[in-house]
Design a protein that fits this description.
The complex is a heterodimer. Chain A is mainly alpha-helical. Chain A has a single domain, classed as Orthogonal Bundle (MetI-like fold). Chain A has 11 helices and no strands. In chain A, helix 2 packs across helix 11 and helix 3 packs parallel to helix 6. The longest helix of chain A has 34 residues. The longest helix of chain B is centred in the N-terminal third of the chain and has 34 residues. The relative contact order of chain B is 0.12. By secondary structure, chain B is an all-alpha fold. Chain B has one domain: MetI-like fold (Orthogonal Bundle), CATH 1.10.3720.10. Chain B contains 14 helices and 2 strands. The radius of gyration of chain B is 25 Å and the shape is globular. In chain B, strand 1 and strand 2 form a beta hairpin. A two-stranded antiparallel sheet of chain B has the order 1-2. The C terminus of chain B is likely disordered. The chains are: A mainly alpha, B mainly alpha. At the A-B interface, helix 1, helix 3, helix 4, helix 5 and helix 6 of A face helix 1, helix 2, helix 4, helix 5 and helix 6 of B.
Chain lengths: 258, 294
């Protein structure tokens, strides 16, 4: 089937629109001029400047801690939930499944504010722990949905074979089920980490004054005055998340290939 | 120890229902405690009196909901709906052709798809910042136009409704493309051949076969754009200079400067209710939200 030319040009414009702004951002992180977009020579100054700013480095450290801890927690909880939902016909299951989809469609601002209210009502001080709690709360659903998709395409005969051949359930789970499930679990984990690492809206409500993550620090910089250091950070974040997405995508492809 | 564990596990495995609940309880508990309960508390807050330094005072009142009938807040509500709807429409018009082309291409499909997914997962903040970088007075658009001699003084692009809309569309376009692509990709092409054999011209084949079959994706895409647009406050804050308040800005403001938590809670619930109406309407059509969309 041939596609009309006008269709092709609309699509070209859309791709241009999607990628040009990011490309420009990256290119000008290497520009020597501070104030304009006139090209005035290649420099790595803005990247060096990142290393001199303790607020950015502290934000990065907190983002990594929050990302790693919340990813670990939400991956384990989300995977268990997926196993429970897929393998057991329980009463109240459909209610739980609806509960699973609520976080996917709730506006982030509502999630952030309701958690802020909860922490205030319980008199819990805001800090790294509250950020982690919030990130796990919105990541679980994503992990579960990804793992459920993997479980749906899995061959259960292998597990049955293992059981018939005398392996106990514990061994079967770790030697048969989990290895098959692993690509799904890993791509769920990468997704959770990306969500956590990028989140600004929810974090801005549940972060205390001393626990600003990288996006919160960057937001402050963008609001005050824009300097090319922001371009440099953005470029690094872009490269980092692109690698994660690429990995998640490859795991996903492996999933389809099997 | 090992023996005990084994006995315990054996006992657990002989009771499937209990085992199921053991798997479900941790995540279910987390979602209950940190998702449903907070929203429940928010409902409670929205009908209580305002505390002076944030928080609430005991007492029942519906004044916070009544405030939405104030012309000022009605205008914010209406603007939010109009902006979100317009954003959804623009995304549909731009996104459908892209989804169509990706679904029909063979050689470039994976690359084209990856190029859509990439900005989709890129930090929202970075994408909004990219827009500022383009639109500010000394930004790329103005510099290019000045250089080309098309304008003599920089145009005011940043802090305008135009910039906000561009930022919203830029942020949410992939949400539209992906679900439409998913339905188009699954489509049985022999139906189109049949239509062609029966003498339908290309336009009719699209209108009577492709389009109706892709409607689930279109509806899902519209919902996935409309929902986050409705609750968004970053684009109107950073690109609109908070001049044209959306309900997201209003909510954020109630918890930051204004310290009116009950009113902020009521506003959040208005957003949530609008979203739920949309989602329920969608579920009635018999589809589940597509995975990995936000």
């Amino acid at each position: 089937m041939r596609t009309p030319r006008w269709l092709g040009s609309i699509v070209a414009v859309v791709y241009f629109f999607l990628h040009l702004p990011l490309l420009v951002l990256v290119v000008f992180s290497f520009n020597a001029s501070r104030f304009s977009v006139e090209w005035s020579g290649f420099t790595l100054d803005w990247y060096r400047r990142i290393l001199e700013r303790s607020d950015i480095l502290a934000g990065l450290r907190i983002s990594l801690v929050v990302g790693i801890v919340s990813t670990a927690l939400s991956t384990v909880l989300g995977t268990l939930l997926a196993l429970g939902l897929a393998r057991h016909r329980l009463r109240g299951r459909s209610a739980l499944e609806s509960l699973l989809y609520v976080p996917l469609v709730t506006p982030e601002i509502v999630v952030g504010i309701s958690l802020l209210i909860l922490f205030a009502a319980l008199n819990i001080g805001l800090g790294v722990a509250t950020i982690i709690i919030a990130h796990v709360a919105f990541s679980i659903s994503f992990v579960t949905v990804v793992v459920l998709a993997r479980l749906a395409g899995m061959d259960r005969h292998l597990e049955e074979a293992a059981l018939i051949l005398g392996a106990d359930e514990w061994t079967t789970f770790f030697r048969v089920t989990l290895p098959q499930l692993l690509p799904g679990v890993l791509s769920g984990a990468l997704l959770a980490f990306t969500l956590s690492f990028d989140d600004y809206v929810i974090t801005s409500f549940v972060a205390g004054s001393g626990s600003s993550t990288l996006p919160v620090v960057v937001y402050g910089m963008v609001r005050r005055n824009i300097e090319p250091t922001v371009n440099a950070i953005s470029t690094l974040v872009l490269v980092f998340t692109s690698i994660l997405i690429y990995l998640a995508d490859r795991l996903g492809r492996e999933r389809r290939a099997r | 120890m090992g023996r005990l564990r084994r006995r315990l596990l054996g006992w657990l495995w002989s009771r499937p229902a209990l085992q199921g609940w053991t798997l479900i309880a941790p995540a279910g508990g987390w979602l209950l405690l940190f998702f449903l309960v907070p929203i429940g508390i928010m409902v409670g807050y929205s009908v209580m009196r305002r505390g002076i330094y944030g928080g609430v005072e005991p007492g029942f009142t519906l004044e916070h909901y009544a405030r939405f009938f104030d012309p000022l807040y009605l205008a914010i509500l209406r603007r939010t709906l109009v902006v979100s709807a317009l954003c959804t429409l623009i995304c549909l018009v731009l996104g459908y052709p892209v989804a169509y082309l990706i679904a029909r291409s063979r050689r470039w499909r994976n690359l084209l798809l990856f190029l859509v997914v990439l900005p989709f997962w890129t930090s929202f903040l970075v994408r909004t910042f990219a827009m500022i970088f383009l639109f500010r007075d000394t930004g790329l658009v103005n510099t290019l136009l000045l250089r080309l001699g098309l304008i003599e003084a920089p145009l005011t692009l940043l802090y305008t409704p135009f910039a906000v809309m561009a930022g919203l569309v830029y942020s949410f376009l992939p949400f539209m493309i992906l679900p439409i692509y998913a339905t188009l990709e699954r489509q049985d092409l022999s139906l189109l051949e049949a239509a062609a054999v029966l003498g339908a011209p290309p336009a009719a084949r699209f209108r009577r076969v492709t389009l109706p079959l892709s409607m689930p994706g279109v509806v899902a895409g519209c919902l996935l754009v409309f929902i986050p647009a409705l609750g968004s406050f970053l684009p109107s804050d950073l690109l609109g200079g908070a001049k044209q308040m959306l309900i997201g800005n209003l909510i954020q403001n109630q918890f930051a400067a204004a310290r009116n938590w009950p009113f902020g809670s009521a506003a959040s619930l208005v957003v949530m209710a609008t979203v739920l109406v949309g989602v329920l309407a969608y579920l009635r059509t018999g589809h589940r939200p597509a995975p990995g969309m936000r």
